[in-house]
Predict the structure.
Amino acid sequence: MFDQVNSWGLSDMLREKNAVEELPLEALVKKTTVPRLYLLPGGTSTDNIFGLLCSGRMARLLPRFREAFDYVLIDAPPCLEFADARIMARHGETMLLVVRADYTDRKTAQAAVQRLLLDRIPVMGVVFNCWDPSKSDTYGYVRHRQGFE
C-alpha cells in the first residue's frame, strides 16, 4: 500500500544493539509518499517475537515515537488469536479495536473487548471495517450498543 519493502522493521529494530534513544529517527521509520506519514514495517521474521515485544527496547520505542509524532498507530494481528496486539497495547495509551464487518461475529468481538479489559488495556472504541449499511444491518447502531453494554 505504501510502496515499502519489509526488509527491515520493528523486529530488526528490537534486535538492534544501539540504544533506541541514540538512533536517528530516519533509521527507525521510513518516509512514505503521503505527507507527514511515516512507517515502521514489521521487519524480518523471528522465532522470538514475543520476547522482543516484551523487551525494554519496545517500552522505550513507543515513547520515542510519541515525542516525534502527533499520532502513533500500531497494526497488529487479531488479539484473540495472537498476543502481539495485547503486548504492544501495554506500551500505548489506549487501543482502538478494528473489527471486520461480515467476518467477525458479535461474540468474537465481545470476547476481544472483554479480554482487553481483563488485561487492563483501555479500549477507546471499536471500528467496523468494510461495513456497508446498504447491504446489511448486522452492525446497526442500536444492536451494536446493546451488544457491548
